[in-house]
UniProtKB/TrEMBL annotation:
GO terms for molecular function: dioxygenase activity. PROSITE patterns: VOC. The keyword Oxidoreductase applies. This is Extradiol dioxygenase. It comes from the Bacteria. Keywords: Dioxygenase, Oxidoreductase. Residues 3-108 form the VOC domain. InterPro entries: Glyas_Bleomycin-R_OHBP_Dase, VOC_core.
Amino acid sequence: MISGAHVILYSQNAEADRDFIRDVLDFPGVDAGGGRLIFKLPPAEVAVHPTDGPPQHELFLMCDNLDSQLAEFRARGIEITRPISEQRWGKLTAIRLPSGAELPLYEPLHPTAHSL
C-alpha cells in the first residue's frame, strides 16, 4: 500500500533552501543524516496534465488566501517573483528561494482533493 509521496527539490544552494523551508515556511522536518532534512508537507494532491513536450514535474504550494499569504511573505522580506495572475483554475504567483529558484504558489478556484 502506498503510504505517502516524497518530493525532491534539486538546489544549487540546498542548505539555504532547507533553512528557508524550515525557518520561513515553518515546515517541521527530520534529519535523514548528514544534515539532509526531510520536511513534512501540508496535505497534497497530484494531477496529470497532457503535454506535447517532454514529460516534466512541477511543485506548487497551495494556500487558502493568496493575498494574505503574500502580505505575510512581504512582511518577512520574501521576494515575490511574479505578479498574481488569474488563471481559470486559480490565482497564481511565485516566491524566490535563497538559491534563486522560484517556488510557485496558488489559491485554487477548483475543487481540491487534498482533504478527501
